[in-house]
Design a protein that fits this description.
single chain, two-stranded antiparallel ribbon, mainly alpha, 1449 residues
């Protein structure tokens, strides 16, 4: 019998001895019996088998080459541990380690559950787990090595094939080794933890689950070891000891997912890490906490408020990546944690304005994702963040925001079943989409068009549904969106026309008849695409493809043709894009996208004939009150017809069916006048061939048009006459009937008086020849004499400076239309025949300088005066667009017109600026009118200044682009180059009514602001600013004289002072100077400047010392304005003078010779007054007693223009005044002026008496003139006083009898006219004013007058004997028109009625020269002594009198 370690080896009954001599098979059979016997044994009386247990643990059996032998031995040893528990027969630690390592190796057999011996391996696992045999190893020194081997094996063999029992037994075997052990080594911890992070987590889900379950079972026991691990890794930086130290934050996240209790003592350490100075570390911790806080069901934020607040602080981290990480995880916090919603929204509100675009983009993406996943979570506040980002400075963010909003609108509004609450939440989206069309970038506009076609009104929807959605959309968007929609249609049509012209040009070139250059067309199309420079190359490539591919040309012709349907357009676009090869990598993809964008704009995928017909039917249902589509929408019928008007202007060829026209005719019979008027506009757009193609429709339409022209409202009459001119092939016969009818209604008592004026104006414009004689008589007698020159009624009492149109009296509305009628009449004439243009301009000028009260009777209230002067200014701008009339506008008229930019009424300033910008932007107004924008620097409202600055920038860009596109205009560069607006600006500001002297510091400071206002956008971009040219032009001005008064030293000094200010601004504020080599010689306008004597050099500084500006020290640039320029910037002593600075479309004449120009200038009647008198002769002008009073609402809305000082008036002799007035009142003709203007006076020939106070074109021989002229053309210049005698022209019963009147020896001095920017938006009621004038010589021919002038109210002037002073000066003294309101010392605010007994002197030009005892009125706002505006409260007469009483020196 064998013995081991002194113990006999006893075998159980039935078992044979096993030894080394047995063969493998026999040994296996005996071991099976032995294993079976051990399996059946209990734990009682088994001490006898201890020797057998030791024997089986010998090296022979454990190292046997047969795995079956090893497995059976392992099963026997496992049973031995069970049988002898708790004291195993193995006492040697080394032997125990060897045995357990042997058992671990045998457990690898569990790897394959399908193996034949798996049951024995399972039995081995079950036995070891049940008995907890490995717990014996806890006491061993090498226990951690054993455990590591066991855990490593278990994690490596577990798989999805194993049953739940196997997994549980493995856990039962492993868990006690942690829970009952005194320590857990880092190595063992790594083996467990590495299996819960990526990639094991996803690649080995079963292993992850096993590790997770193990951690959950042992959480309490393992917590201190995990805490120690993280403490060492996070705080002490002992990362080398662990394999997972570089995945700490992943481990924390997973442990928090598995067992949050394990991390209770670890999380506070993360707060410290959040404040780390290392960006990468802060980012990792932030990402970790964001995930932990945002997990569904997580309560970490509630449990650890300090950590949550610290995390919120990372939204403001200095690192972009950290902020972006916080924002990106906000999505899940918003979705899963409503309790944290408020905190997150507050942070997103700040981050949507983040300076980094990636963060702002992340905000947009997060909110849109939340809205798509759960729209109920997305509040209106969150959506407002997206709304703001549609205006982001980066296009990519604007694109993401706008596309996202469009998709939300399509998903929640256009759905068949929609939630009303959701619809209301995003009802503003459609407006916001169209508002983005106001962006100037092509990318934005293309984006809006794409969103419109795909989201707002899906183009692929069925026709009826598509038009229904379009109608509903149009009827519910706001006014700004409507304008954007109209602009979108126009732009799409413009691009379509340009592409069509390109295809036609390519075909013409291919036919060889002529060679049409394509580059200009390609450039124009490229400007409508994103990235214009790249698009130009793409368009050239596309043009080559079209030229080479006949089939593609045919596709494009069909696509652009009038018969293309929406479905066909979609197919053709796909075919063309297919021929381009589809999207590809790199440059080809850019080319493909450019052409795709182009085709999207020109393809009629939304509208075709069927769509228009369906839309008309939908509108017809609404007009008849049957529409369900627009229930609850205000003015739905009018909006529907307005939509048709917009479409008819772009797609007239789609309005072609008889049924469509019949429905449109039914609209004309609608009770709503607006619907009928809009329908007429539709026929204007689509009725060109109506008479020939649809005679039945024409027969019904014509009587309706005639009736509307005669009896409709002014708008209907206007459009009806236009429609007749388009629809009727013989319009003259039809319009003659209308003309005869409206002539009879030209009576203020007629109900159709205003309509008749409007109709008359449009007939005169359309048929200027056919009705010339009749219209001239009507203009002279009815329009001018009986309407404009008569005040029959007064408006309602009000302190407001403006009110809505429905409050305006009928008489004022008639006067407004009368001025428009005069302009339309002149537009039709297109010539100054019979001096009609001159007389009209003089009339409009008089309206402006009289504050809108032409006859100065004081019967018109302030709001209507504002409308009248605004209308006069707009009419002058309209006439200035025509060269034949623009040449007639004198400098005085231009300066008075410009001062409307500083009008006291906000609405006048606003509308005048809009009208001015409109004319300049289309290159119709001459460049000199851009100088008027400089006066906007006085506007008190920042938004108004910004608006005008934007107008300036747009005009500058427009003209520079035009020059680049048209290099052939070099000879006419003067008309386009925006820098040439500066000479006009300097001249305009030099004649500022407040600038009495070149040493007036306060006024010069204001002028400096005005100069910089217009110079800033010109020189702000160094690449566009030619410093040398700019400076040379300014220096050349100082070598000239003021053409308006060349011999007046004070006038020239003021001009030089303003020029010095401009030079100082140039050298001091032009920070980035580019000295360009250019051969361009600056030219100056002859109407503003004339040359000095040859060899003259002006190097003096005229501005006060405190205004002299020092320039930046620049190498190669002379900055001082005290001396002439350096050699490279040569001052031009004899500057080139351009004689014809008019509209951009005219050709420039050659410069005239100096002698001829000087001779012409000396003979012209732009007479300047004598230099300013000595200070002793001056006195300050008293404040106005009756000030302009605006409503508080106007003050709040419009703001207050800057206050500009009044000029001083000279001391008057009251005795002389009375004497002069008495002499004037003695004239019977003067007394009867308002009632005895005969028709011969109205129609006398003004050609012989035409005033020539505007510069004449050089080269013309001067007319023979009398020594004196009427004062009708006297200049509006202010501040010039003279002792010259006064000439008074008389009329007696309409005869052209000449009468000589000798002026009083001591005639009153001329009062100062001023047009200053008021200190508030308030205006005063008009009052009569005292005029103290002097005679002005006007050039005239000696021939008799022709009594055919339609407007001129002139009679022949009586000869005047000039005084010595007047004969000694080449520029005779003249009357000064004032804009300032003066008041007598004894007057009070409430006493503004005309003085009894005062008679007005009749002159030949609309009462320009007249005398009265009341002061002139001015639209000047006023600030009371207590700082409040006088529109806030009514002042007492006594206080007004006290404040208005001027102090005489």
């Amino acid at each position: 019998m064998t013995s081991v370690a002194g113990k006999k080896v006893v075998y159980p009954s039935g078992c044979k001895e096993v030894n080394e001599e047995l063969g493998k098979d026999e040994l296996v059979r005996r071991l099976k019996l032995l294993a079976r016997a051990f399996q059946d044994m209990g734990q009682d009386d088994n001490e006898q088998y201890s020797g057998l247990a030791l024997y089986l643990a010998s090296d022979y059996f454990m190292d046997h080459q047969s795995k079956d032998v090893r497995l059976l031995v392992a099963c026997c040893i496992a049973d031995v541990f069970r049988i002898f528990a708790p004291d195993a027969p193995y006492t040697d630690p080394a032997q125990l380690k060897e045995i357990f390592m042997f058992l671990i190796k045998q457990l690898r057999g569990l790897e394959d559950p399908d193996a034949p011996s798996f049951k024995r391996y399972f039995y081995l696992l079950e036995n070891l787990a049940w008995v907890k045999s490995f717990n014996i190893c806890i006491e061993l020194e090498d226990s951690q090595e054993i455990f590591c081997s066991l855990f490593q094996l278990m994690f490596s063999i577990i798989s999805e094939k194993h049953s739940t029992k196997v997994r549980n037994f493995i856990l039962d075997m492993m868990a006690p080794l942690i829970t009952e052990a005194d320590a857990v080594s880092q190595e063992l911890l790594d083996i467990i933890l590495i299996n819960i992070i990526e990639p094991y987590k996803t690649q080995k889900r079963v292993v992850y689950q096993l590790a997770k379950d193990l951690l959950i079972r042992t959480s309490n026991a393992i917590e201190p070891f995990i805490q120690t691990f993280f403490n060492n890794a996070l705080m002490l930086g002992k990362s080398s000891e662990s394999e997972v130290s570089d995945r700490l934050y992943d481990l924390i996240y997973e442990l928090n997912q598995i067992s949050p209790n394990v991390l209770l003592s670890v999380l506070p350490q993360l707060e410290f890490k959040l404040k780390s100075n290392v960006e990468s570390e802060r980012k990792k911790v932030t990402k970790l906490l964001a995930k932990m806080f945002s997990d569904p069901g997580s309560t970490l934020a509630d449990q650890n408020k300090a950590l949550w607040n610290c995390f919120l602080g990372r939204f403001n981290d200095i690192s972009i990546l950290v902020r972006q990480c916080c924002v990106s995880h906000s999505q899940f916090l918003l979705q899963y944690h409503p309790e944290l919603f408020k905190d997150i929204v507050e942070q997103l509100k700040v981050r949507q304005h983040d300076p980094e675009e990636t963060v702002r983009m992340e905000v947009v993406n997060v909110i849109l994702t939340v809205a798509k996943n759960d729209f109920s979570v997305c509040t209106e506040e969150l959506l407002s963040f997206i709304k703001e980002r549609t205006l982001d400075k980066k296009f990519q963010i604007r694109q993401a925001a706008l596309l996202g909003l469009g998709q939300l609108y399509k998903r929640f509004v256009l759905a068949e079943e929609y939630d009303k609450a959701n619809v209301e939440k995003i009802s503003w989206v459609k407006d916001k989409v169209f508002h983005a069309y106001y962006q100037s970038n092509n990318e934005d506009r293309l984006l809006v068009e794409r969103v419109f076609n795909t989201c707002l009104v899906p183009y692929n929807a069925e026709v009826s549904e598509r038009m229904k959605r379009l109608y509903l959309l149009y009827a519910t968007i706001d006014d700004h969106a409507v304008r954007a929609f109209h602009e979108m249609l126009k732009n799409k049509n413009l691009v379509k026309v340009m592409v069509s012209q390109l295809v036609e040009a390519i075909e013409v070139n291919l036919e060889g008849e002529k060679n049409i250059p394509l580059n200009r067309r390609l450039g124009a199309i490229s400007k409508t695409l994103p990235e214009t420079h790249k698009a130009t190359d793409h368009m050239k490539k596309f043009a080559m493809l079209v030229k080479e591919d006949k089939r593609m040309r045919q596709f494009l012709k069909t696509l652009l043709g009038p018969d293309c349907t929406s479905q066909k357009a979609q197919d053709l676009v796909k075919e063309v894009l297919k021929k381009l090869g589809g999207p590809g990598p790199g440059q080809h993809n850019l080319f493909y996208n450019s052409i795709k964008s182009l085709l999207e704009r020109v393809a009629p995928v939304m509208f075709d004939a069927a769509a228009i017909e369906m839309l008309v039917k939908h509108v017809d249902e609404t007009v008849r009150g049957l529409g369900i589509i627009t229930d609850g929408i205000d003015a739905a019928a009018e909006k529907g017809v307005r939509l048709l008007v917009a479409l008819s202007s772009v797609y007239p060829h789609y309005f072609k069916t008889e049924e469509t026209y019949e429905l449109l005719l039914s609209f004309l019979k609608h009770d709503d006048e607006a619907v009928a008027d809009l329908t007429i506009q539709i026929f204007i757009n689509v009725g060109k061939h109506l008479q020939s193609e649809h005679p039945n429709i024409y027969t019904v339409l014509l009587p309706i048009l005639q009736r509307s022209a005669k009896l409709g409202n002014p708008k209907q009459s206007k459009h009806a006459i236009k429609c007749i001119s388009i629809v009727c092939q013989k319009k003259e016969a039809i319009l003659s009937q209308v003309f005869e009818y409206v002539k009879k209604s030209l009576n203020p008592e007629s109900a159709n008086f205003i309509t008749s004026i409007v109709a008359l104006g449009h007939i005169a414009k359309l048929c200027p020849v056919d009705f010339a004689a009749d219209i001239k008589a009507i203009v002279s007698k009815t329009i001018v004499k009986d309407l404009l020159m008569m005040d029959r009624s007064s408006g309602p009492d009000t302190t407001e400076s403006w009110y809505s149109e429905h409050h305006v009296t009928e008489e004022t509305m008639a006067k407004l239309q009368a001025m428009k009628m005069l302009v339309r009449w002149l537009e039709g004439l297109q010539s100054n025949a019979n001096n009609s243009g001159t007389s009209t301009l003089r009339l409009l000028y008089t309206v402006i300088i009289h504050e809108g009260d032409l006859m100065e009777k004081g019967m018109i209230n302030k709001p209507e005066l504002a409308r009248l002067r605004l209308q006069a200014g707009c009419c002058m701008l309209k006439l200035a667009e025509y060269k034949c009339y623009g040449d007639l506008i004198t400098r005085e008229q231009f300066q008075a017109l410009a001062l409307l930019m500083n009008d006291s009424c906000y609405r006048v300033r606003l509308n005048f600026a809009l009208k001015l910008n409109k004319g300049l932007l289309v290159l119709r107004l001459p460049l000199e009118y851009m100088s008027i924008f400089s006066l906007a620097a006085n506007d008190p409202l920042k938004e108004r200044k910004l608006q005008i600055k934007n107008f300036l920038q747009a005009n500058i860009s427009k003209r520079r682009d035009y020059i680049k596109q048209n290099p052939s205009i070099g000879a006419r560069l003067f008309h386009f180059m925006p820098e040439y607006s500066i000479p006009y600006t300097i001249h305009l500001l030099a004649h500022d009514p407040d600038l009495q002297s070149h040493e007036h510091v306060e006024v010069l400071k204001n002028i400096k602001e005005c100069l910089w206002f217009i110079m800033d956008p010109l020189i702000s971009k160094s690449e566009d600013c030619n410093y040398s040219f700019f400076r040379k032009m300014l220096e050349n001005i100082k070598q000239c004289k003021d053409a308006q008064d060349p011999e007046d030293e004070a006038t020239n000094k003021k001009l030089y002072a303003v020029c010095d200010l401009a030079l100082g601004l140039l050298v001091s504020k032009a920070t980035h100077i580019t000295l360009k080599d250019t051969n361009l010689e600056p030219v100056l306008p002859a109407k503003c400047f004339i040359k000095q004597a040859k060899g003259y050099m002006n190097t003096k500084i005229y501005v006060p010392k405190e205004l002299v500006m020092e320039g930046h020290k620049r190498k190669g640039v002379h900055d001082s304005i005290l001396a002439p320029s350096e050699p490279e910037i040569v001052a031009c002593p004899g500057p080139v003078v351009n004689p014809l600075p008019y509209t951009p479309r005219e050709k420039t004449s050659k410069p005239t010779k100096t002698k001829k120009l000087k001779k012409e200038q000396s003979e012209s009647d732009v007479d300047m007054e004598s230099p300013v008198k000595s200070p002793k002769e001056k006195t300050k002008r008293p404040r106005s007693k009756k000030e302009n009073i605006d409503s508080q609402e106007e003050n709040q809305v419009s703001g207050v223009p800057k206050k500009r000082g009044r000029k001083s008036a000279k001391k008057e002799n009251l005795t002389d005044n009375k004497k002069t007035d008495s002499e004037l009142d003695s004239s019977k003709e003067s007394q009867d002026f308002n009632v005895q203007c005969s028709s011969s006076d109205v129609e006398e020939n003004s050609e012989q008496e035409q005033t020539v106070n505007h510069p004449k074109r050089p080269g013309r021989p001067p007319k023979q003139t009398n020594s004196n002229s009427s004062s009708a053309n006297s200049s509006p210049r202010r501040g010039k006083n003279s002792d010259n005698k006064v000439t008074k022209l008389k009329q007696i019963n309409g005869a052209s009898k000449k009468t000589s009147v000798t002026a009083a020896k001591d005639s009153p001095k001329g009062k100062t006219q001023k047009r200053s920017a008021p200190s508030s938006s308030e205006e005063s009621s008009p009052v009569k004013k005292t005029r103290r004038t002097r005679a002005t010589p006007v050039k005239k021919d000696s021939s008799e007058s022709d009594p055919s002038s339609p407007i001129s109210m002139e009679s022949e002037p009586s000869p005047v004997t000039p005084s010595k002073k007047s004969t000694s000066s080449p520029a005779a003294s003249r009357k000064t028109l004032t804009r300032s309101k003066l008041h007598s010392e004894s007057g009070s605010e409430g006493n503004s009625s005309p003085v009894k007994g005062r008679k007005r002197a009749a002159t030949k030009q609309l009462r320009i020269d007249q005398f009265s005892t009341k002061p002139s009125n001015v639209r000047r706002a006023k600030t009371l002594a207590n700082g409040s505006l006088d529109g806030d409260s009514q002042e007492s007469p006594s206080s007004a009198s006290k404040r208005g009483r001027g102090k005489r020196k």
